[in-house]
Amino acid sequence: FVYLRYTIPHYESTTIVQLTEDNQDLNIFNENKIGDPNIAQDIELLRSQVFIQRIIDSLDLKVSYFKKGRILDFDNYNFAPYRVEILEVDPEAYNVPIYVKFISGSNYTLKYNLGEKKYEYRLNSNLPQKTPHFRINLTAIDTLECIRPSNPYYFILNNPNTLLGLFARQLKVQVLSEAARTIKINFADVNPFRAS
């Protein structure tokens, strides 16, 4: 029971694609080389950093949202009661948990550590706010949920290069049938909405 209760689930989505000579859907470089009979070229295109970066951009992953749990933290992708718009970030603030506590619908505190130094700021929501390490605009979407006492919320400002590496490892592309020009694309993640 303990293993099942406290193990992070992994979700996976799979699709099978048949490549054709006139396939326009994969033409992300605006070239006419996608229809080349060499299926390896098409697979490498799907694994390319440009293609993966387009996936990342379409999913709005600049910020990851979490709710602290007793043992496991909950990934709140698309379900956080607040949104953070990044206006400016110093590289040292990437991938650092930034805890947010709402005092009211219009005020909140941020706490985070960089190295051994602790930072805490009281800021206003719905307005651009600046700390020495970043400038953001935090908006409360569900004010009641934000101010209700619960486990702490935190967010992470994601480093684009880290995201690219993570998604490249989570994306698997393999040939099912070279004669039929079919490939299988797998993507796995700890959040079911990102995996789909």
Q: Briefly, what is this?
A:
The protein is α+β, with helices and mostly antiparallel strands. It has helices at 2-5, 39-46, 49-59, 143-147, 160-170, 192-195, and strands spanning 11-18, 63-67, 74-75, 82-89, 97-102, 107-114, 117-124, 128-130, 134-140, 153-157, 171-177, 182-189. Helix 3 (49-59) packs across helix 5.
How is this structure best described in words?
The protein has 196 residues and is α+β, with helices and mostly antiparallel strands. 22% of the residues lie in helices and 38% in strands. The chain has six helices and twelve strands. A six-stranded antiparallel sheet has the order 3-2-10-5-6-7, with no helix packed on it. Helix 3 crosses helix 5. The two termini are 28 Å apart.
Global outline: elongated
Largest sheet: 6 strands, antiparallel
Strand order of the largest sheet: 3-2-10-5-6-7
Question: Average pLDDT, to the nearest integer?
Answer: 85
Content of β-strand: 35-45%
Report the radius of gyration as a whole number of Å: 21 Å
The rounded distance between the terminal residues' Cα atoms is 28 Å
Helix content: 10-25%
Q: Helices and strands: which structural class? A: alpha+beta
Please give the count of helices. Answer: 6
Order of helices and strands: HEHHEEEEEEEEHEHEEH
Which parts are unreliable, with pLDDT below 50 for 5 consecutive residues or more? 27-36
Oligomer: single chain
Count all strands and give the number. Answer: 12
